[in-house]
Amino acid sequence: MRERVPVFAAVLVILGAVSGFGQAAQRGQGGQTFTTNGNGGLVDAPGQQGQRGQRGPAVPSRPAPRGPDGRVTLGAAVQGRETGLWIGGITNLTNADNTPIKIPFQPWAQAVALDRRQNAFEPHTRCKPSGGPRQFLTPYGVEFLELPELQRIFIFDVGGPHTFRIIYMDGRPHPKNLEPSYYGHNVGHWEGDTLVVDSVGYNEKFWLDRGTHPHTEQLHLIERFTRTDFNNIKYEVTVDDPGAYTAPWSGQFNLRNVPGDELFEYVCQDNNFAPVLMIGVLDSVDRSSPIIP
Question: Residue 65 and residue 81: Cα distance in Å, rounded?
Answer without folding.
Answer: 12
